[in-house]
Amino acid sequence: MHEQARRGLVQGRALVEQLVRRAIDDGHIDSDRAPATETNLLLALTGFTPLIELDVIEPQDALAAIDVHLDRLFRST
Q: What are the tens digits of pLDDT across the range 3-23?
């Protein structure tokens, strides 16, 4: 089960990195951004789930942080 979950996460991460690379190529993300780093930062945002479910932070606070990150990432060049 561990290996199956790992393969799924590896594939999902690869898909997100493809999308980030396409956004860079299309000029939606600054070309000086490192695709692997931006992918990891985006995926790190999924870490909010247990914080929300365990009432450590409020959903609207997680959403605000995600909005700020995406606004910074997709700031026009």
A: 999 999 999 999 999 999 999
Q: The whole model's pTM is what?
A: 0.83
Report the C-alpha gap between 31 and 26 in whole angstroms: 9
Query: 39: which 2 tokens?
Result: 């992918």
Question: For the segment 23-41, what is each residue's pLDDT rounded down to a tens digit?
Answer: 999 999 999 999 999 999 9
Instruction: Please report, to the nearest 10 degrees, the dihedral formed by the alpha carbons of residues 19, 21, 24, 28 taken in order.
Output: 0
Burial class (CB in 10 A: 0-12, 13-18, 19+), 27: exposed
Angstrom distance (rounded) from CA 42 to CA 73: 10
Tell me the chain's radius of gyration from C-alpha atoms: 14
